[in-house]
Amino acid sequence: MDSKTQAERKVNGRFKYANIVLDSAAVTALGKQGGYFYNVYVNLPSSGDIDASTESRFVGTVGPFEVSAATHHSDGTLVLPANDALLGLSAAELTQVVVSLVRIDGPTSPKGVAMVVGELRVELSADSD
Fold first, then answer.
1. Which one of 41, 44, 46, 75 is most buried, by most CB atoms within 10 A?
2. Which of these, 8, 37, 11, 22, lies nearest to 80 by C-alpha position?
């Protein structure tokens, strides 16, 4: 890993901060049982295969605990830093980013819709706010 911190790296040479934002996220009644989480990726191959080469596309994880906390504290808004995953993309590529939430089930996970998201977007900023 290079010596630059995440805040010092720039996406597309102009943006200091890149985030994946999930707005109005909520856990369904079924999802409150827990036993699952979602891995969040950007620009997975169209085959959807996840392997060692997709590590650089990994943004983070979201589960029922994080969503419930966000619902309680911020109307269901979750912000995932995505600088590393979006680093090096051109302006044209940044307009075509695809965000994937890949559900990982445990042995007691619920069957069906466990979480809903009202809006998912990519935010780019030169400022930390």
1. 41
2. 22
